[in-house]
Amino acid sequence: MDTDPRAHPTHYPDLPSPHVTTPAAIELATDRGRVVWVPDAYGTGMVPITRDLAPAMPQPTEPRDLTPRPAIDPRAQVLVAGGAGAGLAGAGLAQLVNALAAFGTAGLLAIGLILAAAKMPRRQAPTSNTHIHVTNHNRWLGKSTTNL
User: Fold this and answer.
1) Rounded to whole angstroms, how far apart are CA atoms 10 and 1?
2) Cα within 13 Å of Cα(28), Cβ side
3) Rounded distance between C-alpha atoms, residue 48 and residue 40, angstroms
4) What is the three-class DSSP state of 46?
5) 36 three-state secondary structure
6) What is the pLDDT of residues 77-111, one digit of tens each?
7) H helices present in the chain, as ranges
8) Which of 122, 125, 145, 120 is nearest to 135 (CA)?
9) d(CA 24, CA 21)
């Protein structure tokens, strides 16, 4: 029986000769960039990629201006000072005068109703006194007796 694999190439077509060696490429750790781990596209785990292919780190946002703002807009102050708000001030003054006039009329009506109600005889509801005496006797083991 012949056991040499080279004798039957149809049975072992991919086997190299046992005496021939082929040199393999050697990859040194310094040949490739640093490896970093980033989340994968599905969010289920982390995948390694070289640092030069990794997305850039997000830059911190610029600090906001937190100085206090004026209570009234300076542009609005300029417009009111120039007379643009004079018409609105007059309308507001008219509303105030109308409210005072209506209050005077309504105030006289309210005083008249209060005086009329004071002169009416008072009606008293019949009074009755109800006294209920409840006696509750508690015993051991949760037994209670209630007497009215």
Assistant:
1) 17
2) 2
3) 9
4) strand
5) strand
6) 887 777 766 766 677 778 888 888 887 778 888 88
7) 74-81, 86-119
8) 145
9) 9
Q: Which amino acid is at 122?
A: R
Instruction: For residue 30, give Cα distances in angstroms to 6, 35, 124.
Output: 41, 11, 106
Tokens 């051991």 belong to which residue? Answer: 140
Measured CA to CA, the distance from residue 137 to residue 145 in angstroms comes to: 5
Q: Among all chains, which residue has been given the structure tokens 């109800």?
A: 130
Which residue type occupies 4? D
- Strand runs labelled E in the chain: 35-39, 46-50, 135-138, 144-147
- C-beta of residue 51 within 8 angstroms of C-beta of residue 34: yes
What value does the mean pLDDT take over residues 58-68?
88
